[in-house]
Amino acid sequence: MEQLSGGEMLIRALKDEGVKHIYGYPGGALLHIYDALFQQGDVQHVLVRHEQAATHMADAYARATGKAGVALVTSGPGATNAVTGIATAYMDSIPMVVITGQVMSTLIGEDAFQETDMIGVSRPVVKHSFSVQNPEDIPSIIKKAFHIAESGRPGPVVVDIPKDMTNPTDRFNYEYPKSIKLRSYNPVSRGHSGQIKKAVDMVLGAKRLVIYAGGGVILGGASKELTELAQLLNAPVTNTLMGLGGYPGTDRQFIGMLGMHGSYEANMAMHHADLILAVGARFDDRVTNGVDKFCPTAKIIHVDIDPASISKTIKADVPIVGPAKHVLNEMVTLVKDSKKQPEKEAVDSWWKQIDEWRTRHGGHYRTDDSEKMKPQQVIEMLSKVTGGDAYICSDVGQHQMFAAQYYKFNKPNRWINSGGLGTMGFGLPAAMGVKMNFPDEEVVCVTGEGSIQMNIQELSTISQYNIPLKVICLNNQSLGMVRQWQDMNYESRHSHSYMESLPDFIKLAEAYGHVGMKVDKYEDLEAAMTKAFAMKDRMVFMDITVDPFEHVYPMQVPRGSMRDMWLSKTERT
Amino acid sequence: MRHIISVLMENEPGALSRVVGLFSQRNFNIESLTVAPTEDSTLSRLTVTTIGSDRVIEQITKQLNKLIDVVKVVDLTEGDHVERELMMIKLKASGQMRAEIKRTADIFRGQIIDVTPTTYTVQLTGASDKLDAFIETLGAAHIMEVVRTGVSGLSRGEKVLSI
Ligand SMILES: Cc1cc2nc3c(=O)[nH]c(=O)nc-3n(C[C@H](O)[C@H](O)[C@H](O)COP(=O)(O)OP(=O)(O)OC[C@H]3O[C@@H](n4cnc5c(N)ncnc54)[C@H](O)[C@@H]3O)c2cc1C
Ligand SMILES: Cc1ncc(C[n+]2csc(CCOP(=O)(O)OP(=O)(O)O)c2C)c(N)n1
Ligand SMILES: [Mg+2]
User: Is Methyltransferase among this UniProt entry's keywords (chain B) (predicted)?
Assistant: First the structure.
């Protein structure tokens, strides 16, 4: 049997797990591991400029592929810099393995140089964590880490490795376990068939059914099954922010995103539904609005792999614990075999009503109230220029909502954004992580002049590894989302939501060796964007001036019901 | 309502902090907590008493079950069960009080486990409300120190929590 050091075992285990890229930043506690990395060619390391970016790259790789991404950071400040990225993945249930260096085991607890209790610091934001106590355990711990991260409800796993566990002179027999069993962890693999039957009976009998599908459909690779079921039933489908792409965005049955900035028709349909089939969605407070007023006439079927998501905020009438793929598949089979059909008259009149709602608002926005370009126009143009087929990695703010509303996602895993934590600074490293793994696809970072500056240093990593993604910066010279709330709730007192002394993004991009483009007028947008996307091997930073006073609509009225919305600055439901 | 939740978990470093962390992180209440290894040295048994609405208790058991180190969870108060807590209480015992304390301890089936000319230490086991009653009967003026283990419990009859 082969004899390897702890550091070598770690890298070999990653290779055996099928890992191609790891994203990281070296430091004292990792020196043995970096030396092991240097002496092999299977696992490629990507050197970021800040550890937060390493975690977002790993996270975005996972969002695009479904496989756990890997980040490697040193002890102390390296580890704490990674915490935001770990929390981001945790909130959106993204599989990730984060390897953190630690001071020598003999020094733990002594306030040693660059010592942080990373197991303690990360505990509330991990699915699980391991602290390596014996070098021989490294292969099995890595196997367990991937198994836990990727199965059931996915999530980030931290593996903390004291430096002396990776000593090059201490060598051990290496064998990577083929499979692993954990007596205390057995995620469900199928839903309860009695409950599924009951659910099918209900959907076939419903008069005003809405399918509310979330990130669980993307995570569980169930968009095919979802689409099939929805089309069999001729049911309207709404997606959460995390579920976009789970159902084809340009299909007639898609009624848009729901929730705080959901479409008028989606929120109206939810409010008036008699049955809601929730799949892989967790009734987040950005979706339900006031829980006491939530969907007063609806019964709720809730399919989720995590029992804790069910009846957490809204009580489910029919809970089904299981993977979306299996449950939806069963439902499809049962619906096909059933003699019962949805009552045609009821379905038709439900659609008539929904289509009426559609025409009332339908994503309308004004272009005549400002000389400036509208952010929505930019996203619509982006959709046109990329054929609606790009990976869109977003930052956080108004631009994120505009991207969610106006880019029509027809495929899953292409809309990559931080929903649960809402981490500004996510977009650029996320786009890097995706582009490195899908070099032939269009990968776009949609961002704002605020968010982009939270991880702007990564422009340097982009030059080092030549990652020709495209940055679309909707520059409204303000922290637009904050400003919108100040406009609506604080009589437009714009406390610190204005960005003074913005850098010249064009020069900045150029300083890092990239192409910068500024666009101020809508007339120039299409040509400029087409030109940018034609530069296949260059990273292009498009700094696009947009109306600083634009708001995101619809916007639900706080603590109201689903149907209580502002539709424009002056119009309320 | 008050619930007694029993948790069987891996006897691993860090497992306890995950359970305790979960309670504070999710704003769940802890009235008492006990933990010790079981007959199987790879497993610890933790008992927590908590107060919450049905919805909160449901979340507590579900969230506990999600912890990788947790093997099994049961809400003992859902069925018939026995519960015990042990208390040691140090009392000022001089003059008439010496007899008074002895008498009260006997009524509560307590034992005096340490004696000095001025103090008695009484050991008492029982359900928590019995211990509360003892404290109340003797009155705060005589109490020097109280230590309680927190509640442990088991289901009645054949039902067991094991793997
Ligand atoms: C500025 C801003 C505005 C926002 N506005 C909105 C808004 O208007 N509308 C909106 O929807 N969101 C909005 N969000 C996002 C919101 O905060 C939540 O992140 C989002 O609503 C959660 O989506 P989800 O319910 O699909 O759950 P996710 O966080 O995606 O969770 C997935 C669920 O699926 C389950 N699951 C995982 N795998 C499987 C599987 N294989 N099978 C079955 N179930 C599975 C999980 O257990 C979990 O319950 C906004 C965020 C920001 C930052
Ligand atoms: C790290 C972080 N800090 C603060 C916030 C709060 N926040 C949400 S949106 C936003 C403004 C974002 O500004 P910008 O990136 O310019 O986007 P815009 O809303 O203008 O499109 C802020 C400050 C956050 N989400 N993340
Ligand atoms: Mg902005």
Answer: no
